[in-house]
Amino acid sequence: MADPPPSQCSHRDSTPLDPLPGRKSTSYEDQLSLIPIHIVTQACQLPPEFLEPSVERQLVIGFDCEGVDLCRSGTLCIMQLAFPDAVYVVDVILGGEMLMKACKPALESSYITKVIHDCKRDSEALYYQFGIKLNNVVDTQIAYSMIEEQEGRTRLSDDYISFVGLLGDPRYCGVSYVEKQEVRVLLRQDPKFWTYRPLSEQMVRAAADDVRFLLFIYRKMMEKLNQRSLWNLAVRGALYCRCFCISDDSYADWPSLPTIPDILIVEGVAPEEEILSVLDVPPGKMGCVIGKRGASILSIKESCNAEILIGGAKGPPDKVFIIGPVKQVRKAEAMLRGRMLDIY
To answer: Is residue 252 part of a domain?
Structure first.
């Protein structure tokens, strides 16, 4: 990758992307590898292969977003892009619409794989605030669950691996992420933490922390996933990106979902299609859907092989999102509609 222009504001820190090759990770310090962190406020400060996606120069990058109450109505403050040799912290506040417009082709491109942990709210913020349809993601939260299922381990319906938990898993990284908790405390004390400028050393370090190991984790996960799981991961990632991005045209203007590979079609029989269903909940009926202490919706989740998501405090407050194989989604829809008829 070419060095950034001399005019670029760059910040150098001991920021590891990958544990040292051929060496067992024993501590945070053992994994330090000096790489640059670039603070980006103009498009010209980003790598040309990112700004101009092409089939000849396909990329895999780590990706994350930070902001205030990150969702459709929150404020997207920074994006982090982890390349094999550098981390780019894209300052959305200072760069504004012009910078995000320049990033749009890459974020929507099928030639650039974005490795992210839990893409739903990041995608929602990008879509509603900048009209960006996040595409071609590998969601490590989804991948983790698929590997667990593939290897015969089951998880509880609401048991999603946290990013800190994933980092700490020795099968993927084995790194303690103490500073994440410190930043969470600061965010609770001051939700506008990511709006302050100039970015402090702690802000830059925390931003890089959230993406620097993603490429290493990605490679570990790709080694474990079989062909069926890889296809499921691609489809599920695409559906998660759309999840909270309500569309009147049934997402017709979004990129097409990944097609079923020929290798998965056996004697003319293909895996069942996966879909996203958005169920409207009548006023006053969300309590019936959720039940006391979440008991009702939990029982539905346990009865269906589908993901059932509710907007919660960030919204949308009157919809339930269901992702999974068609038959399981329809089953969940029927059970949820039944709950709406109950007297709460």
So the answer is: no
